[in-house]
Every structure is written in C-alpha cells, then in structure tokens.
Amino acid sequence: MITRSAHEMSEAMASGEITSEALTQQHFDRIAEVDADVHAFLYLDHEGAMAQARAVDKARANGEKVGPLAGVPLALKDVMVQKGIPTTAGSKILEGWRPPYDATVVTKLKDAGIVILGKTNMDEFAMGSSTENSAYGPTHNPWDLSRIPGGSGGGSSASLAAFEAPLAIGTDTGGSIRQPAAVTGTVGVKPTYGGVSRYGLIAFSSSLDQAGPCARTVLDAALLHEVMAGHDPKDATSINAPVPQVVHAARNGNVKGVKIGYVKELNGEGYQAGVRSCFEESLELLASAGAEIVEVSCPNFEYALASYYLIAPSECSSNLARFDAMRYGLRVGDEDGVSAELVMNLTREVGFGREVKRRVILGTYALSSGYYDAYYGSAQKVRTLIIEDFTKAFSKADVLVSPTTPTTAFKIGDKVDDPLAMYLNDIATIPVNMAGIGGMSLPCGLAPEDGLPVGFQIMAPAMQDQRLYSVGAALEAELLTKWGAPLLSQIPALGGAK
Amino acid sequence: MTDSELDHLATEMDVILNAVARVQEVATPDIKPTSHPVPISNVTRPDVVVSSLTPEQALSGAPAKEDGRFRVPQILGEE
After folding, report:
1. Among A193, A166, A190, CA closest to A178
2. pLDDT grade, residue A297 (50/70/90)?
3. Is residue A357 assigned to a domain?
4. Which residues in chain A are contacts of B72 at CB distance < 8 A?
5. Domain assignment present for A320
6. Quick one: average pLDDT of A223-229?
7. Distance CA A247, CA A267 (A)
C-alpha cells in the first residue's frame, strides 16, 4: 500500500480496503524500518497523527463527506510551524522550540483531514542544496545513500522516494522544492508567488519564499496544491484571486497545440550529458504528443545566480535578526552581569551554522551604506531584466522548459567546502523565484552514466499554475507508457523488504 | 564568531563577492530596480479586536520569564 500514490490510497480508504489508522501505522512502520539510513525526519508525531487518522476514519464511517486527501499521511518540512510540535528549521538556535500557533498551510492540511506524520530535515533556514547544512546531520538520497537528496527540502523529497510518506510539503526560495524533487525522482511544484500563504513559514528571503506540494505523481501534487493554496488575510503578499484549476489540469494533461519554449541558456555547457539526453528525449515525446517546440532566449539568466546571491542574503540578514535569544529559542551565556548584546552574540555564534553566518554577513555587506547601489541595487535591476526576459519568452510560448538541475545527485561531502559550486545547483531554478512565477519538476529518466534520476522543469506565467500540471501530466503519461512503470519502481530496496 | 571561523569566512567572502559583482555588468542606470515579483499594495483589516495568543502562549518559548514577562539580560548600565 505504501508504494501507491496518495490518490490511490484515498480511493482505497473510500472503498473500505484500508483505514487511515492502518495506513498511517504502515507509514510509521516503514519509517522505523528505513529512516535510520535515510534520516528524512527530525521529529515524528505518532500520537497526533494516529488521532487525526482515527478522526478521519470515524467521520468516514459516519458517512460524513471528507476531502479527497483525508486520511492520507504527509511529511511536513521543518520550516513550517505546527502548534505544539518541535520546529527547528534545521537550526540549533530553535532546538526544542514548540510554536504556539499553526501556519496557515498547517491549518489547511488539518482541515482537509491530512495526517501529518512529522517534521522533515532541511538545510538550516532553507539555505542550501543538499541538507548538509542541517544542524542535525544530512539526509541521504534513497537512490544511493552516499548521495545528497537535494536541498533545502531534502528530508521531504527523500521521505517520498523512500516510501515513508506519499505527500510532503516543501518551500522554494531558489529551488528548494524542485531541485530535491529532481535528484530523488519525485514531483515538486513551486506555485506562483503569493499563491500559498507564507503565514507561519519561517522566513528566509521574503520576496522569494513560496511553499508548495511535493509528491510522487503530478495528480497527487495537484490535489495537495489545491488544499494548500488560496488567499490568506494573514499574509499581506497573498494573492486575492481564485486558485488555478490545477486538479482539473492534472486530470486532463494535454499538449496538443501547446507552444513549449525550451530556454537556450538553461542547457548545454555545464549540464551533465545524461541530464541533457533525458531532457531532450522528453522534449521529443512532447513534440510527438502534439506540442510545438520553440527555442527561446533569456540572455539575462546568466546573471540570475549572482543577483540571487545578493538578494536572498540581503533579505535573510534582515529576517534572521529576529533570532535574538530574548523571546524564544536558544539563549547562551545568560549569567549575572553579562549584557544582552553579548548574550545575543554568544547565542548566534553557537546557534547559527556556517552557511547561515556566511549569508548574513554577505547580505549585511550588500546592504551597507556605500555598497548598497553596487550590490543590492544592481541585483534588483538584474531582477527586472530577468522578468523582462520571461515576459518576452512567454509571448512566444505557453510554458518554458529546461532541465531542473545541471547534474544528478552528487556525493555527500563533495561540495560542502565550495560554496560557489554548491550555489550552481540552483542555476536553472532561481530565475523562476526572481520573477515570482510557477515552476514544476518531474522525473524524466535516469542518467545513463550514473543511473540517477533527472528532473524536467516546466515554468508558467504567474497565476497560470494549471499549465504546469497540464503539460506535466501529459509528459508523465508519455513517460509511463515508454517505461511501463513509474521511475520510482526502479529504486534499489532500502532496509528490509520493500 | 571564533577567530578560525572569521579567517575561513574572510577568504570565502572575497571569492563570493567577486562572483556576485557580475550583476554590475548589466545594471545600467536606466533600469528600474525590482524589489518584489508581483505588484503589492497595502493590506488593512477592519479595526476590530480579534483573538490572539494568550500571554502564557506568547511566553511559552521564552528562554527566561518572570511575572508574566520576558526576562532578558542586562540592557542598561554597561561600560
């Protein structure tokens, strides 16, 4: 049962084949079996999950109408606050903190009857592409335990690939949903900025952060997207408009007559051969399914990475000032006569990891008087140029596509001492965040040279998220016909029996 | 930060700053900066009292508290 899709699990519960309680227990059993190797979870809420599962079973038994994902288990990225449940964002500075409220997304999940199994591992404050920056140790890629599961949402993606959960929540500031999805052979969607509430999402870079669904199929991602999304008065940047018809689109995948623009600059040099071949085979499948493939050029994308590594650190240097050792979280060195300022410094020295310090310093520098125009100001101008590139490209194509990442999953430890090499992982995903548009990654094959999953990225204009699902579902169906089974059926067995 | 951390970071920072300084190549004066990806406007709500965290909830994560307040280290009278 645990290898089925969330949609199939839901059907099995509706038909009486299994209860949510039993389904949830099966997932906890699986976690007990494999998570010592994978380390996807930082915290498990067995009691809360089983109570929610029983409540859904009871409602169903009483003939009450329940939502399409009611009773389905989910893994929650530890950057989302959940009332009473330890929430760390992968940082020592929040170790042991139990938030006094629920994020809006969490409220929506609970209202939909979704069973939250626990909190997943991540790079500290979502800064990273490998989960190696977690203060609680790295997560391992279920395809090859010596490799990274992507980041920052590596716990969420790994939990899906390891069949520890059929659904997960991620957040994507520069690729933290799509890059982990790509390297684990799963599906991840970054909705349009403002499509999902950020209330209760621990902020990294507020103009870029966006939560989204992670799943093993395009339809499952759409079902979860519909639960999460919608206007929230508690988030001033939340878009007050109807949620795009993503489930309808995912059920009716179609690319006949759709113009698909492949972005010239997001392929070629620097991209692994097997990534390129898988991507290009998928493009051919889309063409044979009736899509019109056009080449588009986005010349300013080559500056996106540089601009991102000024804007995101600048915003984080401001956002992370809230971790001041005064109101919640860690406090170090609080003895008689020690000043608040020194306590703050001591706490941050111990509580923040190396990458967080690196970015706070970089951001503080970029915003400082005398350097503001040259760094932060210039980065904001590049953001304008990237948005203009997208506008031009979308005048020629309905969606844009590229490989999600330049390479497949690398070895744990390989890039940890080379920040610039690490940052390059997000080269194809960052432009989407800069422009605030929607993006999806879905698995498109295994690279012949290393047998590891490759991600196919689809990008759509703002508030046209349904196009991601329509094209994604069409490609997923074509690939399924070609392979005869989902890509994840080829994953090596973990622990004991699968 | 510790001294060894500082040494390590200083070298890295040079490399990173050189890399991100590329933005200056295309950021000409005629381009308008973008701070936010979608148009935003002020959001207000009616000025009515709604429920919020209780003092106990707000203090639940405090490293130290006293008499229903956050207790903080000394903030005045430093040399």
Report:
1. A190
2. very high
3. no
4. 326, 340
5. no
6. 98
7. 30
Using a CB-CB distance cutoff of 8 angstroms, which residues of chain A are in contact with residue B35?
Answer: 207, 380
- Of A391, A495, A434, A453, which Cα lies nearest the Cα of A185? A453
Q: Which residue has the tokens 């933290």?
A: A176
CATH code of the domain containing A236: 3.90.1300.10
- When scoring A349, A380, A390, A464 by the number of chain B Cβ atoms within 10 A, the one with the most, hence best to mutate, is A380
The per-residue pLDDT for range A383-397, each reduced to its tens digit, is 999 999 999 999 999
| B61: nearest CB among A98, A194, A436 | A98
Q: What ipTM does this complex have?
A: 0.92
Report yes or no on A475 lying in a domain.
yes
Number of domains in chain A: 1
What does pTM read for this prediction?
0.97
* Distance from C-alpha of B15 to C-alpha of B8, rounded to nearest angstrom: 12
DSSP-assigned states of every residue in B44-71: ---S-------HHHHTTT-SSEETTEE-
CB-CB under 8 Å, B35 with A306: no
Domain limits at A262?
A: 6-301+383-490
Question: Which residues of B fall within a CB distance of 8 Å from A89?
Answer: none
- Alpha carbon dihedral A313, A315, A318, A319, in 10-degree steps, equals -100
